[in-house]
């Protein structure tokens, strides 16, 4: 690994290697819940020590009450602003109903509505507003708006519509520069239509004012890496060199991330070395995170730690994503003491936990079999107003299944019914696996009905999970029947 230079590692000294015996394993995170058992993953307050600070239930209630008062006062104070926003939203809602019925709308109203829909990737609605925009008396063709729309359509995998807009842009006399061509090329490459994308790249080379730049090549390289076409990537890098286009930090980070995810560590290190040789292209926190994720995700903890120390010495400051990567790597390798050190460091330097952070530590507690700590973290998550998602619930379900606590899984389902968490097929597959592991075949079959009610369709994983459950519980006849149906998925 290439050498980096700078300050020292801010983490506490490394702890000894963890005990690999699960029966004796206990995570020590300085998070100590009330010893009384919990009957369901519901919100509540317990005595907790975090980073040397100790809270009791009464104190936490006082804090929550004070926060509610502040929030109420803020709402009252901003009542006038809210009414203005509501009026503006009402006007935006009317825009789509107009459909050309009005040619005297205010520019700001229409442009705000268009920008909102582009940002939210609501491409169908955005195109309706754009048509209304073109009908206004004050309308003048604007290349910037066209480029934003084409870029949005690319993200939504609508390349043909993007091409139609590109043609309309040309017909209206807008200046078509390399940015417009790059947006169209990106639309095709994002949808896997590489022949069309490379054709546009060739067109750009022939137009003096539209020659591809590093941004153009980086987008195409990223699309090729997403389908693991490393041969095309090498050709593009060679072409960049021939054209005199030098890769930038984004290009190198894209390569490092892709090689790391594919476990091509030699290529990843080679790219990093090339990056370090460039005087005006230095690694940043994205470089560090991609490198750490690659080694940590493959269980190479020692290499991950060495890289972290070198990046730190180079003066690159970690982000919340950096700590989440470290926590995930330590948790999956059962290195709970180092995981605890990371958490204490985050607490000491006031890094607020995100949804990803909570999901990682909840999963780690669950796999370690520490149900009380896991439930405490789930309650803490709610008290911090961090909304759980399907990943959170899957971790709870798996932990309860391993502990044989079917009634706790029922509590998770009750929580899901009373919340606005969108349940997907992955969650139901996890639920089927949990009931199968515990031998609750009737409950497992009931999950299929739940899936239908929620509008989730079973997939191959659902079928294989049920086959495994039937086989484990000696129901070979049912397993064979499902095996025959597997081909229809």
Automatic annotation (TrEMBL):
<feature type="repeat" description="PPR">
    <location>
        <begin position="354"/>
        <end position="388"/>
    </location>
</feature>
<feature type="repeat" description="PPR">
    <location>
        <begin position="424"/>
        <end position="458"/>
    </location>
</feature>
<feature type="region of interest" description="Disordered">
    <location>
        <begin position="1"/>
        <end position="56"/>
    </location>
</feature>
<feature type="repeat" description="PPR">
    <location>
        <begin position="284"/>
        <end position="318"/>
    </location>
</feature>
<keyword id="KW-0677">Repeat</keyword>
<dbReference type="InterPro" id="IPR011990">
    <property type="entry name" value="TPR-like_helical_dom_sf"/>
</dbReference>
<feature type="repeat" description="PPR">
    <location>
        <begin position="213"/>
        <end position="247"/>
    </location>
</feature>
<feature type="repeat" description="PPR">
    <location>
        <begin position="177"/>
        <end position="207"/>
    </location>
</feature>
<dbReference type="Pfam" id="PF01535">
    <property type="entry name" value="PPR"/>
</dbReference>
<dbReference type="InterPro" id="IPR002885">
    <property type="entry name" value="PPR_rpt"/>
</dbReference>
<dbReference type="InterPro" id="IPR044179">
    <property type="entry name" value="PPR5-like"/>
</dbReference>
<dbReference type="Pfam" id="PF13812">
    <property type="entry name" value="PPR_3"/>
</dbReference>
<dbReference type="GO" id="GO:0003729">
    <property type="term" value="F:mRNA binding"/>
</dbReference>
<feature type="repeat" description="PPR">
    <location>
        <begin position="248"/>
        <end position="283"/>
    </location>
</feature>
<dbReference type="Pfam" id="PF13041">
    <property type="entry name" value="PPR_2"/>
</dbReference>
<comment type="similarity">
    <text>Belongs to the PPR family. P subfamily.</text>
</comment>
<protein>
    <submittedName>
        <fullName>Pentatricopeptide repeat superfamily protein</fullName>
    </submittedName>
</protein>
